[in-house]
Amino acid sequence: MAKSDLMDRVTTDLSRGHTYPAIQRMHSLVATHPTDLDLRRRLAAIYRATGNGVEAGRWSYLDDTAEPDELAAFETSFPPHRRLEALRWPVGVPAPTDVSRERLAPLLALATAAKAPVPMAPRGSGRLQTAAAVTTLGALAGLAVIGVRTVAEWIF
Predict the structure, then answer these.
(1) Exposure check for the chain: N or C terminus, fewer CB within 10 A?
(2) Residue 80 · residue 104 · CB < 8 Å
């Protein structure tokens, strides 16, 4: 469905007081157009109208008109290493405004730092996991045999 058609439906939903479908439609639009700050601003406005400061802050985070208390609510609810994921901003796509660049820069730096190599598990822990897996598979095989036998006795 075209962006303008969905926006018309959002307007209709809101005029009827149906905020949930309007929010769902806006989320689908933002997912399709993640760099459109106007869509993010509109989604934030719906959340603001419903009193959800965390989500209003989340979707207005990259906008220069974001309310400071909503930004604080978003930052309190999402730790720094989870904010970029919560914003759903595509990594590698430049931010369109100075404010969005300033707010995305530290989040992108954290995301890059988080991609550091993961330490290896200590030796020997794999053996224990393998033994547990073999035991579990053996028990499941035994239960499968009992189940097949029970069904066969029931049928015949």
Answers:
(1) C
(2) no
Kindly list the distances between the CA atom of residue 141 and the CA atoms of 7, 131, 138, in Å, as whole numbers in the listed order.
55, 15, 5
C-alpha 100: how far from chain center: 19
| Three-state secondary structure call for residue 12 | helix
Question: pLDDT digits over 104-134, tens only?
Answer: 999 888 877 766 454 444 555 566 677 788 8
pTM assigned to the model = 0.70
Contact between 27 and 43 under an 8 Å Cβ cutoff? The reply is yes
Specify the residue for token string 């730096």.
Answer: 109
| Cα–Cα separations (whole angstroms), residue 115 to 65, 88, 93 | 32, 17, 18
43 half-sphere exposure, CB direction, 13 A CA radius = 28
Residue entry with tokens 């988080």: 114
> Which amino acid, residue 56?
A
73 vs 81, which has greater pLDDT?
A: 73
Closest alpha carbon to 45 in 36, 34, 58, 28? 58
101 C-beta neighbours (distance < 10 Å), count = 13
